[in-house]
Amino acid sequence: MSTPTLRTIFASRAARKVLALAATGAVVATGVVALSGTAAAATTLGASAAERGRYFGAAVAANHLGESAYVNTLNTEFNSVTPENEMKWDALEWSQGSFNFANADRIVNHAQGRGMSVRGHTLVWHQQLPGWVGGLAAAQLRTAMNNHITTVMRHYQGDIHSWDVVNEAFQDGNSGARRSSPFQDKLGNGFIEEAFRTARAADPNAKLCYNDYNTDGQNAKSNAVYAMVSDFKARGVPIDCVGFQSHFNPQSPVPSDYRANLQRFANLGVDVQITELDIEGSGTAQANNYRTVTEACLAVTRCTGITVWGIPDHYSWRASGTPLLFDRNYQKKAAYTAVLNALNGGQTDPPDDPPPTGDGCTATISTNQWQGGFVGTVRVTAGSAAITSWTATVTLPSGATIVGNWNSTRSANSGTVRFTNATHNGAVAAGQFTEFGYQGTGTGSGATVTCAA
Ligand code: XIL
Description:
This protein is an alpha/beta fold. Helices cover 32% and strands 23% of the residues. The strands form 3 sheets. Strands 1-2-3-4-5-6-8-9 form an 8-stranded parallel beta barrel, surrounded by 6 helices. It has a 4-stranded antiparallel sheet with strand order 10-11-16-13, with no helix packed on it. Helix 8 runs parallel beside helix 10. The protein is globular, with a radius of gyration of 24 Å. The chain binds (3S,4R)-3-hydroxy-2-oxopiperidin-4-yl beta-D-xylopyranoside. (3S,4R)-3-hydroxy-2-oxopiperidin-4-yl beta-D-xylopyranoside (XIL) binds at residues 84-85, 167, 245, 276, 317.
């Protein structure tokens, strides 16, 4: 019996939204320019992508939604969002059976208020998974997985265009094997199929994606995913899309067969989506890589959209690699222009990145070593703009143990230690410095430091 009860209808956010819109008459759509006759080149990522029948999204963090520059850029440029962390298992169901949707709802509400669509990320993943899940025996784990999928998808029924049902289930390297995880280890290979079948039953209208990284070109890992998708299609296991995370840097560059790889998956009868795009670098080189990726998506009919994994560089999970389209002052980088031109079908070379103005901080370290102990002094220097807070990350040699520190708070005693400013020394004027220190046992010389502000 599948007729929903009144309670389940009103438990879904979509139903509440329909009622709310009917009551106010408010329908908002941004990021999409209505065109008649010959299409003029659109001037934002979302509008340009929409002209090509695609979405252009960004990963969004709920805790930045109060910042006007962040929100303005989001609202102006993007027409899809992915919650960066707020829909992960640890965020939604930290304790078994107790769901907290508040932060994820904030993002979904924001998106819907601006006419943006939402990607759901992610239902079943071995990371950001609360400890209790790994502690369950197989039968209980199966129930918990299916309950998580069902409860979350029902809550967002009608709100999410595509869900990453399973994330990163395959190993890196040449084995093509599954990755060890509580799901894999206790439920076996069938867990992915079970997750997708449960997801289809929970929300028959959401597109169901498998999402992974290092699958962007043809290799053992992407071949294994390809074989799984092919098998699912042959056996009627519900799957609609494959997400390619596309986190690129010099060690993991855009593969030369990126487009061909997207195409071979599309040829299996699934949509493909670029789900977490970021490319470390700057200037023309970075811009050219972004252009290559954008053009690849445009060349594959079933590539339905691109999501970049953050908005300004300094909020990226890989901030030091400046991998995004906007700099820390929300200035458009060359990479932005390359993407926009590609979406608009143009060939124009992008201008170079804007000159850095608020380029954070730099740090240097000096160590005074004696037999069995040391004192480290770290100088944090602001760039060409004032900073209001800083984090200096010190990597200590093995065997060094910090026993005390001053003018800072520290995250650990050994290994990689993050020092953040004390209340009195977070603010540093442009070009000026402040210092903090730590004392330890063992050998502290050889420590290295990086700075972020
Ligand atoms: C990252 C987030 O960006 C970080 O804020 C978080 O600390 C760790 O996770 N693959 C994924 C994403 O599927 O969920 C990850 O996001 C990046 C790698």
